[in-house]
Design a protein that fits this description.
The protein has about 230 residues and is of the alpha/beta class. About 45% of the residues lie in helices and about 10% in strands. The protein has two domains: about 5-15 and about 105-225, 3-Layer(aba) Sandwich (Rossmann fold); about 20-100, Orthogonal Bundle (Transcription Termination Factor Rho, Rna-binding Domain, Chain A, Domain 1), CATH 1.10.720. It has helices at about 15-35, 40-55, 65-80, 85-100, 110-120, 135-140, 165-175, 190-200; strands at about 5, 125-130, 155, 185-190, 205, 220-225. A six-stranded parallel beta sheet has the order 3-2-1-4-5-6, sandwiched between helices. It starts with a strand and ends with a strand. The relative contact order is 0.17. The model has no long low-confidence stretch (mean pLDDT about 95).
Length: about 230
């Protein structure tokens, strides 16, 4: 193994922190944030306009010139738990304010910092792949209850690379890391993501943590409850 590619939610960090803390934090503030920073969100708003035009389940027209219309669609995407790239970008910016103010501190499982130290000492590259934006990932690992873990992490990948259930995403990641996929281990709590990584030749591990969904059939995936 030359690199470890890690999911976040349910793998390094408890699911309930993401669902019960981060998502509500962003949703409660998204309207005010969009109104205050509207001029600086043009790239995300353009993407949201394109997304809403193709969204068959959203019945309201999105007016990209009106902050209220934009924030209403963003709230809808949060409630639907959509893996929307512009939503993830804006959420990351809101969380940045929360982390920097001290309102947010991200928990990681106790074995994570120990594993990071061990892998780094063995010259194993540590990379992150999450549906959250790269900014959100960096913030989460910079402000953990075990201190700043970002010095251990070499690469971050988000949905701009591709969907986590798309095998081509893992081919791109392997290319960017500069390793043969067979030299990379991808760890996630979602079997469909492991299927995609396995299709590209990566080694895989199904992560079992407190609060994760029960996987009835793990198939051929090695199950791990700790990284250390």
């Amino acid at each position: 193994m030359k690199a470890t590619l890690l999911d976040i939610e349910g793998t390094t960090t408890p699911i309930d922190f993401v669902l019960d803390v981060l998502f509500p934090f962003a949703r409660a503030r998204i309207g005010k944030y969009v109104e205050t920073h509207f001029g600086g969100l043009r790239p995300e708003i353009e993407q949201l306009a394109e997304e809403s035009a193709k969204d068959e389940t959203y019945t309201l027209p999105l007016d990209p010139t009106e902050p209220g219309s934009v924030s209403t669609y963003l709230e809808y995407l949060i409630d639907e738990n959509r893996k929307s790239t512009p939503l993830k970008s804006i959420q990351g910016k809101i969380w940045q304010e929360g982390y920097e103010s001290g309102e947010l501190v991200s928990p990681v499982f106790n074995d994570v910092p120990l594993a990071f130290e061990r892998w780094s000492a063995s010259d194993i590259v540590i990379a992150i792949y999450s549906s959250g934006s790269v900014l959100a990932q960096q913030l989460l690992f910079r402000h953990t209850d075990h201190g700043d873990l970002t010095p251990y992490i070499s690469n971050y990948f988000d949905t701009t690379t591709g969907g986590k259930r798309d095998p081509e995403s893992y081919a791109k990641i392997a290319g960017e890391l500069g390793f043969d996929p067979r030299e990379i281990v991808f760890c996630s709590d979602v079997p469909a993501e492991l299927d995609a990584a396995h299709a590209m030749g990566m080694a895989t591990a199904l992560v079992v943590r407190p609060g994760n969904a029960v996987v009835e059939d793990a198939g051929n995936y090695r199950m791990v409850t700790t990284f250390f």
